[in-house]
Design a protein that fits this description.
Blueprint: H1 8-18, H2 35-53, H3 56-63, E1 66-67, E2 73-74, H4 79-88, H5 107-120, H6 122-141, H7 144-156, E3 159-164, E4 180-183, E5 189-199, E6 208-217, E7 227-233, E8 235-237, E9 243-246, E10 249-254, E11 265-277, H8 284-320, H9 344-376, H10 380-415, H11 427-435, H12 444-455, H13 458-478, H14 485-508, H15 513-548, H16 555-572, H17 575-584, H18 588-592
Parallel strand pairs: 3-6, 4-6
Antiparallel strand pairs: 1-2, 4-5, 5-11, 6-7, 7-11, 8-9, 10-11
Helix pairs in contact: 1-9, 2-5, 5-6, 5-8, 5-9, 6-7, 6-8, 8-9, 8-10, 8-11, 9-10, 9-15, 9-16, 10-11, 10-12, 10-13, 10-15, 12-15, 13-14, 14-15, 14-16, 14-17, 15-16, 15-17
This protein binds flavin-adenine dinucleotide.
Length: 598
């Protein structure tokens, strides 16, 4: 059976030694996140994830969700009780403002807890995850009455949330959506239409489900400019705040799918359901973007989680599985064979995953902290810079962490040989579960287009210029430091390649947009590698400092950091050259064949 251990020490290293959490002390909520509080939260979240949520991962996969004749959905055995634990622990609303019953702690804490929960059980973690996204949309766009009606119960997790965008004929191109909203005398709307693939659309773990639904108000313009966002509760909310009569929304069926069986993926039928506008009419996509941006980062984290949990199990297996002898001489003469961890190719596999995971976690936390600055700082300039960072890094985190997370789950499965392909070790579940992360919240090809087509040129390239400036300042500052050379020199080279790729788009994509589309996925991965290398350079610096100042029992971990970072620079980062070359080859060949020739 697979196991999971939450990387508490690694997170503490990042928060304390790499990103210096104390520097954020002037932001609201951060003064409450003292080192003691953070440690207590991390340890409790780790315990809950490891002991309560992880054991349900396999159960959820085998049992799945069941739709009953009345349209209700039963979640797998144990999910309900575990969700109750989540509510009682106050985990859902840990970063929600205190006025709505949350703890007001940094959103970065929620990101960390999301990692632990999703590593333990991706399907289960989606129920609170979607609720947090819906809370964010309500916080940003809700009227005071709407906030008062919905937020307190969603903050506790007694009520959960969903996001309803997709329809049978449109997922990426939402401009085509047909769900209709008809205005009523009392200011509400009657919503009619079918939404598909709605995660957590119906289940038995909460007293109410608050659906956020995209629909077109009768008479509104065609395309994306005529889309509005509506709040459609499963049960109407009574004056005393309790759930009342049933609204006209029902789960028509649930999908049979490749993975995340413990999460109900529903067809939702809206049959004249009553909804209320959230935000402005015809600006629904803007409002939904608040939720989608949160969700995109969270899905990036999901990619990391399946890579992490698959890695942990592969590393354990590699230490135990005896097969063959080391080519450099027998390592375990007392045993019939050496453990497979002696073989360089197994080490290559494990270190590729490990070096990605640790840097990806850093990239997520760095960006989550910027997210807190963007939402909480009183300094307008700092807010804008942080917002730029978020806009630029969100598609990179979503796309790169999920593409690589899936590839890593497959690589970790390979460490098990045939035993990874059968169900017993749980490795094939990680592969199946990881796969969806590349598809939902905007398929990864769309993330790459968002990065190249929208984010690079926005505000005269302000965000990318700031990113280049930050990385080159680090390279300049530490370039002459002998100990840092193995990290800084390759980072500098890779940065130059990213700059060349950016310049190539500027010169070649305006006149021929297909050049941007043809190179966008490579660009996203090139960007991701540079960002991950930047994380490694900073982690190496922090590890060296720690070793110099007495690492207090973490010597071995810090030395391992330095080796793992060096591996990343030597073996992972060189892929940037191939990405650059592919980008520079342009779109001509790929666009030459007629559609019939495929
Ligand atoms: C398990 C699961 C859970 C989901 N949860 C939710 C949910 O909770 N709420 C919700 O609203 N939706 C949800 N979805 C839907 C999901 O977000 C969509 O499936 C996804 O956005 C892709 O839309 P689509 O399936 O219609 O694919 P399409 O839009 O048809 O795209 C097909 C392919 O074409 C590519 N493509 C499309 N347009 C372009 C373009 N202009 N340029 C280049 N490539 C392009 C895409 O990248 C994709 O690879 C879920 C889906 C699944 C499977």
């Amino acid at each position: 059976m697979p196991t999971y251990k939450a990387p508490v020490e690694d997170v503490q290293f990042l928060l304390n030694d790499v990103f210096h959490l104390e520097r954020y002390g002037n932001l609201p909520g951060f003064s409450d996140a003292s080192p003691d509080v953070v440690t207590a939260i991390l340890e409790e979240a780790a315990k809950f994830s490891e002991e309560v949520v992880q054991p349900l991962n396999r159960v959820g996969d085998l049992e799945g969700c069941k739709r009953n004749a009345d349209g209700s959905v039963t979640t797998p055995k144990g999910f309900k009780e575990a969700f109750k634990g989540l509510v009682e622990g106050g985990w859902v609303g840990i970063s929600v403002p205190t006025e709505f019953g949350g703890q007001g702690l940094p959103s970065t804490m929620t990101t960390i807890i999301t990692e632990f929960l999703a590593s333990a059980n991706l399907a289960f973690s989606m129920y609170p995850g979607l609720t947090q996204g819906a809370i964010a949309a309500l916080l940003h766009h809700g009227t005071p009455e709407q906030k008062k009606s919905y937020l307190p119960k969603m903050t506790t997790g007694e009520w959960t949330g969903t996001m309803n965008l997709t329809e049978p004929h449109c997922g990426t191109d939402l401009g085509m959506l047909r769900t209709k909203a008809v205005p009523q005398q009392d200011g509400s709307y009657k919503i009619t239409g079918t939404k598909i693939f709605i995660a957590a659309g119906e289940h038995d773990m909460a007293d109410n489900i608050i659906h956020l639904v995209l629909a077109r108000i009768e008479g509104a313009p065609e395309g994306t400019k005529g889309i509005s966002l509506f709040i459609v509760p499963k049960f109407f909310v009574e004056a005393d705040g309790s759930p009342g009569a049933r609204n006209g929304v029902i789960c028509g069926s649930i999908e049979h799918k490749m993975g995340i069986h413990g999460n109900s993926t529903c067809v939702m039928n809206y049959d004249g359901a009553t909804g209320w506008l959230l935000g402005e009419a015809n600006k629904g996509l803007n409002a939904m973007f608040t939720m989608m941006n949160e969700a995109r980062l969270a899905v990036g984290v999901q990619g990391l989680t399946q890579s992490e949990v698959a890695y942990q199990n592969a590393a354990i297996y590699a230490r135990e599985r005896l097969q063959g002898r080391s080519i450099s001489g027998v390592k375990s003469p007392d045993k019939p064979a050496d453990p497979i961890i002696v073989h360089p190719d197994i080490r290559r596999t494990l270190l590729s995953i490990k070096s990605f995971n640790e840097a990806a976690r850093a990239l997520v936390l760095w960006t989550a902290l910027r997210g807190d600055v963007a939402h909480r700082s009183e300094d307008a300039k700092a807010r804008q810079a942080a917002d730029d960072h978020m806009g630029l890094l969100t598609p990179v985190i979503k796309g790169v962490l999920t593409d690589t997370g899936f590839a890593n789950a497959v690589a970790a499965q390979q460490v098990f040989g045939g035993h990874g392909y059968i169900g017993e070790h749980g490795m094939e579940q990680f592969v199946r579960d990881a796969r969806i992360t590349m598809i939902y919240e905007g398929a990864n090809g769309i993330q790459a287009l968002d990065l190249v087509g929208r984010k690079l040129g926005r505000d005269g390239g302000r965000a990318i210029t700031a990113f280049f400036g930050e990385v080159s300042a680090f390279v300049k500052e530490h370039g002459a430091d002998e100990a840092m050379k193995p990290y800084v020199a390759p980072l500098g080279e890779a940065l130059a390649q990213l700059q060349q790729a950016t310049m190539w788009f500027m010169q070649n994509a305006m006149k021929k947009p297909d050049n941007a589309g043809a190179g966008s996925t490579d660009y996203m991965h090139l960007f991701g590698l540079v960002a991950l290398a930047f994380m490694w350079a900073q982690m190496a610096k922090a590890a060296q400092e720690k070793l110099k100042n007495g690492a207090n029992g973490s010597e071995e971990r810090m030395k391992a950091k330095l080796v793992t970072g060096k591996f990343f620079m030597e073996r992972m980062l060189p892929e940037t050259a191939a990405h650059l070359k592919r980008i520079q080859s342009g779109s001509d060949t790929m666009m030459e064949l007629a559609a019939e020739a495929f």
